[in-house]
Amino acid sequence: MKISISRMLLSSLLAAILLAGCSDNTIGPNHPPRAVAGPDGNLDVNTPATLDGSASFDPDGDDLDFSWSILAAPPGAQATIAAVEEETTTLRPDVAGTWLIGLVVTDSRGLSSRPDVVHLEVRSTTCTSDADCDDGIACTVDRCRTDTGRCDFTPDDSRCADDGVFCNGAEVCTPGVGCTSSGDPCRDVPGACDEENDICGGCGDGVIANGEDCDPAAPAGSHCCNPATCRWTLAGEADPQGTCSGAPECQLDVCDGAGNCTFANAPEGSSCGDPGSSDCDRPDSCLGGSCQANREPPATVCRPAAGECDVAEHCDGVNPDCPPDEFAPPGTQCTDLSADDCRDAQCDGAGNCDQAHAFEPDGSDCAGDGVGCTRDECQGGTCRHLPDDGNCPPDGLFCNGVEYCDPASDCTSPGNPCLDPGDCDEDNDACRSCGDGLVSNGEDCDPAPPAGDNCCDPLTCRWTANGQPDPQAACTGAPVCHQDVCDGSGGCTTAFSAPGTACGDQTDDDCTDPDSCDGAGRCLPNNAPSGTACGNSSFCGGSGTCDDDGRCLAANLVAGDYCDGGQLVHCDGNGGETSRVNCALGCVDAAPSSRCRQVDPANVESNLLCAGTTALVIDAPATIDTSSGDIVYDAGGLIAHSDTIVSQPNPGRPIMVFSFTSIDIAADVSVIGTRPLALLSCGDISLDAVINACGRANLGGPGGRDGGASESDGIGYYSGYGRGGPGRNNNPWSCAGGGGGAFGGDGGQGGDGGSNYYGGAGGTSYGTAELEPLLGGSGGGGGGDWGGGSAGWGGGGGGAVQLTAGGALTIGPGSGITACGAGGGTNNDVEGIAGGGGGSGGGILLEGVTVTIDGIVAANGGGGGGGDGYEDSADATPGDDGYFGTSRAQGGSGTAGSYNDGGDGGRGGAADEPWGDPGEDMRKAGGGGGAAGRIRINTASGNVSGSFTLSPSPATGLTTFGIVDSI
Questions:
Q1: pLDDT, tens digit, for every residue of 551-595?
Q2: What are the Cα distances from residue 108, in Å, to 31, 34, 56, 375?
Q3: Contact (Cβ atoms closer than 8 angstroms) between residue 656 and residue 642
Q4: Taking all residues of the chain, what is their mean pLDDT, rounded to a whole number?
Q5: Which of 235, 768, 847, 860, by CA, is between 20 and 30 Å from 284?
C-alpha cells in the first residue's frame, strides 16, 4: 500500500478541524450511522469467532450503541452471542453450517443504521497430522494440534501481497477468507481518502473529491449539502445552507436527498391559521399538511354552574361558542342563606334560590339562642330551643341537687334534694333514709350495703325484736324443732318451733302419722297405739296390729303390683299402698307383677311397638323410602334406618316397620317406595307437619299400585284396578277412556269413544274397614289410542300408612296425612288419544291410647285425564291428584279437534262422595275418576278428639273408629 505521510497528516488535520464543530450538540440534520460488522470467515465448530464492529461510524460524529443478533443458524443450534450490546464480542458456534450474524448501530439521537451481516461457515474438523488440515486459505499456517485432535489455522499477514490501492488499507490475512484489505485508512474522517494522491482528504476543502456528492466550500457552492460528509442532505431534512424557501402553510422547506429543494408536512400541532380561541374553540394547528380548526370535544364544560340554581353548559363539538346560559328547573332544592333556616328553599327556574313552604326535617340544626344547654333544632318549620339536661355537667355538690337546663339562665341547680334538708349527707352524696346503706342519726342499723346489718327492720332501721325471725334470713343452724330468731340487739339466737311443726319421718299409714314438734323442742313420732288394727286384706296384706315402733304386724303382708279393677296398685310390703294408677286399657292381673295393658299394634307383632331404642325427631323436610328402609333429610343426611319387614296375608305387600321410643315430626315428610309404611312409638306421637304418601303420575304410593299404560289395565288389589280403554287401530276416530281405580269406593268408568269402543270399567271396592291387612290404593286404566301406543296413563294408587302410639297420638292444626291417588294422564304429543283413569286413594291407619286430630287426614282419589281431540289447537290436561281436604279432584280438560273432540276426565272420590265419576263420552274420551280410599282410627275409648277433617267422611262408612287392641 502506498502512503504519503505529509498528505495524510494534512487531510487528518482538515478532518479534525471540520469535525470539531460536529458534536452531539450540533444543531442540524441527523444522518443515519453505518454499521460495519467485519469480514466473513470460516471456522471450526466450538471455535470462538470474534465479532468486531469497531469499523462502524456515524457521519455526524455521534456516539454509537451496538446491537448484535443471530439472523440465521443451522438446525439445532443453541449458541448465543456473548455480549450483544458491545462493540466487539464473541460467538462460539456449536453446530456446523452457515451462520449469519447481524449488527445494527444507533446514534445518540436514536437514528439506527441498516444492518450489516457477517457470514460464517462453520465446519466440523478433526485431525491426526498437519496433512489432515487444509482450510484452503493460502495465507494461514495449517497445523494439527495433537493435544485436541483439531486443526489450527493461524493467519500470517506476511503472506498477503500489496494490491497497490491506498484507500482500501493494508492487506491482512483473515481466517476463513484469505487476504483482504484492512479498510479505509481515513475512516476517522469518512470520505477523506484521496486515492490519486494517496492521502486522507476532508469535506469542506472546496473540492468535490471521489466519494463526495458536493462540497459547501466549492467555488460554485452547493445547497442541501451535508457540511460534515459532503453528501446530499437526506430527503425530508432541512437545507443546511438555508437556501430552500417558499413552502405553503403547514409545509416545510426540505431537501429531496438529491441536492434539490422540496416540501414536507409540518409537524402535527404546529400553529397555523386563526390563532384566536373561545369557550369552545382552540387555536388552529397543522394536521397532515393542512391547517385544521380545533373545536373543543362534545361535553366539554364551557360555562361552569354559577350556583345551586344554575347548570353548567357544554360545547357541542361543532360551534365555536358556548350555548346560551340555562338554569336548574323550578323545584330544585337549594340553600337560601336569607331564608329561615328551618324552611326549605327551591330554585325558581331563573337561577334564583327562593324560600318555599316546605319545612326542613324535624331535628335539623338551626341558629342558636346563645344558651349553652339548649338544643337548637327545627320542629315543624320553626327553630326551637329545647332544654337538654344532658348538656349540664355536675358541679360536684350533692346537696344543691342535680343540675338542669333552664332556657332563661342556662345550667342551674334546683336546691336540696332531700325532703328534710337536714337529712342531706354531702360526704356520702345521699339523703339519709332507711335502706340507703348508711346508719344515720336515729337508726340502729341499715340492711342495705355497705352497712348490710342482720336482724335489722327494713322499715325502721331498728333492731328486730327479741324472738322474731331475722328479716335478712341470715340466722341459721337451729336444731330440729327449734327456729332461728333475733335477740333484740342485732344478734341471732334460737326458740322452740310451734306445736305441730313437721319434723322427722313423714310416713302416714295405719300405724303412724307424720312426726311433729311438741312446742318444747322435741320431735314426736306420732305412732298409733300398740294393738291398733292395720293392713288391707284386699291388696297389701292380711289384717294385723301395730307395734310400739309404728310397724304393722300382720299376716300375709305383700309387696309388688296388683290389679284393683282398672287400677294398678303398688304395695310396700308393710301393708301400705305407695301408688295407684288408672290403666286406660285395663289391668293385667299377674300379681305380684301385674301391669297396665299396652297397645297391641295391628298388622305387626306386638313386641315391635317398644323395640326402638331412640326417639325419632324430624325438624327439616325429609323422605321415608320404604324400599331401602332409610329416613333421610332432603338436604342430605341419614336420620334413621330399619331392616324390619313384616309380611302380610295376600294380597297385602310386606310392611316396612320403624320402631322408636317416641316420634316428633315438625317438618313435611314424603313417603316413597313400594312397601306400606308402619311408624311405631312406645310412647307418644306428635305430628305438626304433613306426611305425603300419595301416588305420583302412574306410580303408586308406598304400598299403592301403579296405573296402566296405553289401553292397559291398572294394577290393583282384588278387582280394584281400572280397566284400560280400547282404541281403534290405525284409525284416530274412536278411543275410549281408562277406568278409575277403586279402594273404599268404586272407580269411575272411562268415557266411551263411539263406534262400540266402550270406556274401561272402573275398579270395584275392596279391603276391610279395619285395614287389616294394610292395603294401599289401586291404579287407573290407561286410555285408548289408535296405534301410537302413547295414550294417557292411568294414575297411581295412594299409599298405605300406619301410625301406632303406645301413648297419645296428636296431629296439630294445619298438619295431617294424605294418601291421595294420582290424576289420570293425557298425551299432547300425539293427536287424538283418550285420557287415563285416576288412581284411588290409599289406606291410613291411626292407633293410640288417645288420638287427637286438629288437622286433616285424607285418602282422596285422583281425577281422570282429559282426551286430546284429533288435530286440535290446544293441549288437553291430566286429572288433578287427590286433594288434601274434602273437595273432589277435578278431571282433566279435553280439547276440541278438527275432526273429533276430546272428553273431560271424571272427578275423583272424596268426603261424602267417595266414588269416581265416569269420564265424558267423546271420540277421544276422558278417563274415569279414582275412588276414595279408607281410614281407620283405633283408640282406648273408640273416640277421637279435636277439630278434625276426615275424607272420606265417617258418614260413608269408609272412615271407621274402633277399640285399639291391647295385651
A1: 877 666 778 888 888 888 888 777 677 888 888 888 888 877 888
A2: 11, 13, 14, 75
A3: yes
A4: 85
A5: 235
Strand partners, 246: none
Give the C-alpha separation, 434 to 423, whole Å: 11
Alpha-carbon gap, residue 417 to 433, rounded angstroms: 13
* Residue 189 pLDDT: 62
Question: Cα separation of 497 and 529, whole Å?
Answer: 25
Q: pLDDT (tens digit, 9 = 90+) per residue, 206-238?
A: 777 766 788 887 765 678 888 877 888 898 888
DSSP conformation class of 931: P
Dist CA 743 CA 765 (whole Å): 5
Question: Which cell goes with 42?
Answer: 470460516
- Residue 456's SS3 state is strand
The single-letter code of the amino acid at 473 is A
Full DSSP string of 359-373: EPPTT-B----S-TT
Strand partners, 152: 143
d(CA 819, CA 693): 5
Residues in the chain: 967
C-alpha cell at 124: 466440523
**d(Cα 857, Cα 162) in Å, to the nearest integer?**
126
Averaged pLDDT, 826-846: 89
* Pick from 839, 887, 898, 900: nearest CA to 865: 839
Block residue for cell numbers 284416530:
732
pTM of the model: 0.49
DSSP 13: H
CATH 2.60.40.10 assigned to domain 41-123? The reply is: yes
DSSP string, 484-513: EEE-SSS-EEEEEPPTT-B-S----BTTBP
170 exposed, middle or buried (CB, 10 Å; 0-12, 13-18, 19+)? Answer: middle
User: Quick one: pLDDT at residue 8?
Assistant: 34
HEC profile of 718-753: CCCCCCCCCECCCCCCCECCCCCCCCCCCCCCCCCC
* DSSP state for residue 179 in the 8-state scheme: E
What SS3 class is residue 130?
helix
Q: Does pLDDT of 1 surpass 60?
A: no
How, if at all, do strands 669-672 and 622-625 pair?
A: parallel
Mean pLDDT of 298-317: 88
- Per domain, the residue ranges of the chain are 41-123, 643-966
pLDDT higher for 96 or 115? Answer: 115
- Region of poorest pLDDT, from 158-172, 200-214, 705-719, 727-741: 200-214
- Residue 169's pLDDT is 79
Which grid cell sits at 766?
Answer: 275392596
For residue 714, CA distances in Å to 19, 746, 775 come to 114, 14, 16
Question: Which among 47, 63, 173, 68 has a CA at the least distance from the CA of 115?
Answer: 68
pLDDT for 805: 97
